[in-house]
Amino acid sequence: MKQYKIFTHPSGLQEAVKQGWSWPGFCFSGFWALDKKMWGLAALILVGGVSMAVIFLVIMPLETAKLVANLAALGIAIAIGNNGNQLREENLRSRGFDTDGEMVEAENPDEAIANFLGSETSAVA
Predict the structure, then answer these.
(1) Would you call 106 helix, strand, or coil by DSSP?
(2) CA 50, CA 11: separation in Å to the nearest integer?
(3) Rounded to an integer, what distance in angstroms lies between the CA atom of residue 1 and that of residue 108?
(4) CA dist., res. 66 & res. 53, Å (int)
(5) Phi then psi dihedrals of residue 103, to 5 deg
(6) What is the pLDDT of residue 15?
(7) Contact yes or no for 104/54 (Cβ under 8 A)
(8) Which end of the chain is less congested by CB atoms within 10 angstroms, N or C?
(9) Is there a contact between 109 and 16 (Cβ–Cβ < 8 Å)?
(10) How deeply is 68 buried, as exposed, middle or buried, from its count of CB atoms within 10 A (0-12, 13-18, 19+)?
(11) Residue 120 CB-density burial (10 A; 0-12 exposed, 13-18 middle, 19+ buried)
């Protein structure tokens, strides 16, 4: 089971954020950021990555530029995998979501939200 932190928006919408490493963030960094509505991070990853590759191609021989660009992309992917869920939490807070910090165990985000809503209603009863 994975640990999730549940964020609730004043409109009633809930988002579950897995704690720890983000495999989707690692594998699909820029597209993952777009999917999570982290526009600034997505732009930085996508535009920065292309700009970096072009700069490397201009100042280095082709084979060296490929190697350096791939190493830089791997470094970015590791950074997003390691810090992506924390960045997502900050993004949700900036968009008006709040959390009580309680952790919910579940197999996936939808189950985490369902467990959270179920425990919330049973605590009221």
Answers:
(1) strand
(2) 38
(3) 9
(4) 8
(5) -95, 145
(6) 96
(7) no
(8) C
(9) yes
(10) middle
(11) middle
The pair of three-digit structure tokens given for residue 55, joined into one six-digit string: 């700069």
CB of 11 within 8 A of CB of 92?
no
C-alpha–C-alpha distance, residues 106 and 118, integer Å: 13
pLDDT tens digit at each of 125 positions of the chain:
999 999 999 999 999 999 999 999 999 999 999 999 999 999 999 898 888 888 888 888 988 888 888 898 999 999 999 999 999 999 999 999 999 988 999 999 999 999 999 876 544 44
Q: Are 66 and 73 in contact (CB under 8 A)?
A: no
Q: How far is CA 47 from the centre of its chain?
A: 18
- DSSP 3-state helix, strand, coil percentages of the chain (rounded to 5)? 65, 15, 20
Which long-range contacts does 45-51 make (Cβ < 8 Å, 24+ apart)? Answer: 45/76, 45/80, 49/73, 49/76
Model confidence pTM above 0.70:
yes
Structure confidence at residue 125 (pLDDT): 42
Nearest to 36 by CA among 86, 82, 92: 92
